[in-house]
């Protein structure tokens, strides 16, 4: 059945359910835009029991001060991001579906982990509001779920009139409780994810991530080249073998049969690493830097260079590795004419190319160049040893074991793993680690619990109404001495934050 038909049937079914729920179930259902609020009393007794612990007094008092501070730091982060987006070319702007942290809409969020993580994050967020209300003897009227075809949220409903009658500081503590709980859960789950990552062990070798060389497949692990032992991909970049010569490559694969140059080949032996079966193959292929891509309208693109060719020399000088290429290439200037010799379909071909300007290329991409770029040449080719992209299993493991290894930047890289589709890892890369599936399931579960609690908490600390941070700002006691001034301040801060958010959405796309 076509996708559009399925979507139409789902929407039609939801309209029918929506009508029937409001027509015959007013006691339990209430409209919330296109969604339905399902009101129940489930969990109220648990909230009552949990709220009796004196711990909540310290918790609420601490986060009464912490949430405004985090809100201020988040605004600083938004300003920093607003500057960064100025250097993002339009071609690299993420689709708008990445803006919402909702599974099924955001393609970076896996459906199962996303739904579980979102339910936990929202449920604990709302439960914390309820616990705070009960700590101040405010009645909790109902709990429930927010449905939009599937459960997309939860809520706890304190008695609104009782909340309004309390002093501003008490109201602020109730609103601060939700994001505070998400922040605590995020801290606990990132510690759990980091701890579990220490039980993951890498398989030595250079892991193939992508390939234009038909002899290799993603997920295979190169262990030697012409009897030179390879423990990580960086060694391949420093090899100095003769370009264009055939070399023997030993690889490990999780498949007992692989396709090499169109032929199915069986493994010559196998090994077991921590319960995972690996098969060893011997492959013969051309050594050198393969031209794996051409940038549109670049000097290389406008020549007759073929993707898949092996670069042999530049103006007669052999190119043994990528460092050699850069050393030779940057001897030339924009406007110089060079001759590239490349191996294509077993034949040597010469290509004459007039170099462009790196400075002009960066300007055309919307990137601000440095003055030094004016004298640098530009060719427009992507070059990869053996025609392969590599996955650095060691750096990845170091990151998930210690997200703060690079300071706050390391944390941003850790949070951004889903944007590169590296959490959860693609199946083909799982075999670059000698660890059981159970360990990975636990690692990914705790990661997504961290990620969604972190996202929900960070969003809700923003001092913008109707988010919790906005209501915390509205209920700061000193601002409540002058209600008119308070409203002006809240409105101004909300508009600034809204502008910063819209700036980041619009600027990279124009």
Provide tags for this entry.
510 residues, seven-stranded antiparallel β-sheet, 15 helices, 3 domains, alpha+beta, Pdz3 Domain
Helix content percent band: 40-55%
Distance between the termini: 37 Å
Query: What composes the largest sheet?
Result: 7 strands, antiparallel
- Count of folded domains: 3
- Range of strand content: 15-25%
**Structural class, from secondary structure content?**
alpha+beta
Q: How many individual β-strands?
A: 21
Low-confidence stretches: none
Average pLDDT confidence is 88
Task: Describe the global form.
Answer: elongated
Number of helices: 15
Rg, please? 29 Å
Please characterize this protein's 3D structure.
- With about 500 residues, the chain is an alpha+beta fold.
- It has three domains: about 35-195 and about 445-510, no CATH class; about 200-285 and about 385-415, Pdz3 Domain (Roll); about 290-385, PDZ domain (Pdz3 Domain).
- About 40% of the residues lie in helices and about 25% in strands.
- It has helices spanning about 5-25, 45-50, 55-85, 110-135, 160-165, 170-195, 235, 320-330, 360-365, 395-400, 410-415, 425-430, 435-460, 470-475, 485-505, and strands at about 30, 35-40, 140-150, 150-160, 205-210, 220-225, 230, 245-255, 255-260, 265, 270-275, 275-285, 290-295, 310-315, 315-320, 335-345, 345-355, 355, 375-380, 380-385, 390.
- Strands 5, 6, 7, 8, 11, 12 and 21 form a seven-stranded antiparallel β-sheet that branches. Strands 13, 14, 15, 16, 17 and 20 form a six-stranded antiparallel β-sheet that branches.
- Strand 3 and strand 4 (about 150-160) form a beta hairpin.
- Helix 2 crosses helix 4.
- The chain is elongated, with a radius of gyration of 29 Å.
- The model has no long low-confidence stretch (mean pLDDT about 90).
């Amino acid at each position: 059945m076509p996708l559009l038909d399925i979507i139409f049937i789902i929407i039609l079914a939801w309209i029918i359910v929506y009508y029937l729920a409001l027509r015959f179930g007013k006691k339990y259902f209430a409209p919330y835009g296109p969604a339905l609020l399902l009101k129940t009393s489930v969990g109220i007794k648990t909230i009552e029991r949990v709220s009796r612990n004196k711990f909540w007094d310290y918790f609420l008092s601490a986060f009464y001060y912490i949430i405004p501070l985090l809100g201020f730091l988040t605004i600083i982060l938004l300003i920093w991001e607003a500057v960064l987006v100025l250097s993002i070319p339009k071609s690299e702007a993420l689709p708008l579906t990445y803006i919402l942290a909702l599974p099924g809409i955001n393609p970076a969020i896996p459906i199962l982990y996303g739904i579980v993580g979102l339910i936990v994050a929202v449920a604990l967020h709302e439960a914390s509001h309820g616990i705070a209300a009960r700590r101040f003897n405010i009645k909790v009227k109902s709990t429930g779920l927010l449905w939009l075809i599937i459960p997309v949220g939860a809520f706890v409903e304190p008695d609104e009139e009782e909340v309004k009658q309390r002093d501003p500081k008490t109201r602020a503590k109730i609103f601060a409780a939700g994001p505070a709980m998400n922040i605590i859960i995020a801290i606990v789950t990132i510690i759990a994810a980091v701890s579990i990552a220490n039980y993951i062990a890498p398989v030595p070798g250079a892991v193939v991530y992508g390939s234009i060389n038909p002899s290799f497949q993603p997920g295979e692990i190169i262990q030697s080249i012409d009897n030179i032992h390879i423990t990580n991909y960086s060694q391949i970049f420093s090899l100095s073998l003769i370009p264009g010569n055939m070399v023997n490559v030993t690889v490990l694969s999780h498949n007992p049969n692989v396709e090499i140059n169109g032929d199915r080949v069986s493994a010559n032996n196998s090994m077991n690493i921590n319960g995972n079966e690996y098969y060893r193959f011997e492959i013969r292929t051309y050594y050198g830097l393969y031209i794996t891509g051409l940038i549109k309208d670049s000097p290389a693109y406008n020549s007759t260079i073929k993707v898949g060719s092996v670069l042999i020399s530049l103006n007669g000088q052999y190119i043994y590795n990528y460092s050699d290429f850069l050393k030779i290439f940057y001897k030339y200037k924009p406007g110089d004419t060079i001759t590239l010799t490349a191996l294509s379909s077993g034949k040597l071909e010469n290509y004459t190319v007039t170099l462009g300007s790196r400075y002009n290329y960066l300007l055309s991409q919307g990137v601000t160049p440095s003055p030094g770029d004016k004298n640098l040449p530009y060719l427009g080719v992507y070059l990869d040893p053996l025609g392969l992209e590599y996955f650095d299993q060691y750096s990845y493991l170091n990151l998930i074991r210690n997200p703060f290894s690079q300071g706050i930047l390391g944390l941003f890289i850790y949070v951004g793993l889903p944007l590169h589709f590296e959490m959860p890892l693609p199946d083909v890369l799982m075999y670059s680690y000698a660890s059981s599936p159970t360990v990975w399931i636990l690692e990914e579960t705790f990661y997504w619990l961290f990620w969604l609690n972190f996202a929900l908490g960070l969003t809700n600390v923003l001092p913008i109404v109707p988010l919790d941070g906005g209501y915390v700002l509205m209920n700061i006691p000193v601002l409540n001495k002058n209600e008119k001034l308070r409203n002006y301040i809240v409105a101004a801060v909300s508009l600034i934050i809204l502008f910063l958010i819209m700036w980041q959405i619009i600027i990279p796309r124009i």
